[in-house]
Amino acid sequence: MKKVNFGTFLKKVILFLIPVFILVSCYFICDPFKVLKNYQSYSNNPVVLNQGYICWQNYLNRRDSLKYDSYILGNSCTMAYQSGDWAEFLSDAKPVRLFGSSESLQSILLKLRALDKDEVRINNVLLLLDRGTLQKITSPLSHSRILHPKVCGSGVFEFQKVFFSAFINPQFLIPFLDYRLFGTYRSYMKGIIEVRDEHRNELTNDIINPREEEIALLGDKYWEKHRKEFPERDGIERIYEPSVGKKQEDMLREISMILKQHNTNYRIVINPEYKQYRLNPMDFEKLKQIFGEDSVFDFSGVNDYTDNPKNFYEKSHYRPLLGRMILKEIYN
């Protein structure tokens, strides 16, 4: 039997551990996802961050001083509703936006549970729903979607493991190191690195889409320039298949229960969509049964709002000017 040289073995172990040590050190020094420590500002970070986590951390950072009592909940379409615009229809409100990218119904419920558990005031809620949100009954676990530990109740180790696993994935690590070393954005970095000035209000989590500046500069030519992002429509309304099953109904009823326990002044808005698909009428009726006839408003399908392409940045997101029109309708 060949005798093992301990010194040789130790050298091999050290050589193996060197890159591991470098990776771990790089992760802790750079904190690319901004989750290892608390930050007062998350703006203008080149790495695409978890927007839901940022919103909740900003809320935690300022809830004691700003005394939030009004909440905008839903997916990225919530950027169409600026807190200042919403506050005009409320009485002495202190609003904050607590959205999540591709938000699930379960995530919305967990956020309301967390607010309820913290015994904060829930005076007003603007809840945005659409078929995509209603269909999702579980919260995602990817690094870009996972909920804040204070919301989902996960342990710190489990939470950080998700981000470190994403960091060492070559699909992230290679473009990240490339950008850190050379400071040059390349097309293959899309979805990982995003170099742009982000118009984020750290106090309310409002975000102004940078395309608003492009629209101000180009006017009507914006929609000509981005014509490929606006597929042709035939004006025929198509209806989604039903989305609200037993699990969704249970979650919606618990959401309603929390709101009613807090005597919340709430509005439920079904998002308008450029493709003009309408939420299934059975789902709409179920929402009205749960939340009340006067509290649920459906802007999906073919209507004056969705007919006008100028109400949209592209086929997935609508603009604050449409958000303001909707606020006037649902509060007046």
Q: Any idea what the radius of gyration is?
A: 23 Å
Helix content: 40-55%
First-to-last CA distance: 88 Å
| Spatial order of the strands forming the largest sheet | 2-1-3-7-9
Q: Could you say which overall geometry the principal axes of the C-alpha atoms support?
A: globular
> How many alpha or pi helices?
14
Beta-sheet strand percentage?
A: 5-15%
Largest sheet: 5 strands, parallel
* Rounded average pLDDT: 92
User: What structural category arises from helix and sheet content?
Assistant: alpha/beta
Low-confidence stretches: none
Count of beta strands? 9
SSE order = HHEHEHEHHHHEEHHEHEEHEHH
Structure description:
This protein has 14 helices and 9 strands. With about 325 residues, it is α/β, with parallel strands linked by helices. The strands form 3 sheets. Strands 2-1-3-7-9 form a 5-stranded parallel beta sheet. A two-stranded antiparallel ribbon has the order 4-5. Strands 6-8 form a two-stranded parallel ribbon. Helix 4 runs parallel beside helix 11 (about 245-260) and helix 11 packs parallel to helix 12. The N and C termini lie far apart (about 90 Å). About 30% of the residues are buried. The model has no long low-confidence stretch (mean pLDDT about 90).
Short description:
The protein has 14 helices and 9 strands.
Summary tags:
332 residues; 14 helices
Secondary-structure map:
Layout: H1 6-30, H2 51-66, E1 70-74, H3 83-87, E2 95-99, H4 105-117, E3 124-129, H5 131-135, H6 149-152, H7 156-168, H8 170-182, E4 199-200, E5 207-208, H9 211-218, H10 221-225, E6 238-239, H11 246-261, E7 265-270, E8 277-278, H12 281-291, E9 296-298, H13 304-307, H14 320-331
Parallel strand pairs: 1-2, 1-3, 3-7, 6-8, 7-9
Antiparallel strand pairs: 4-5
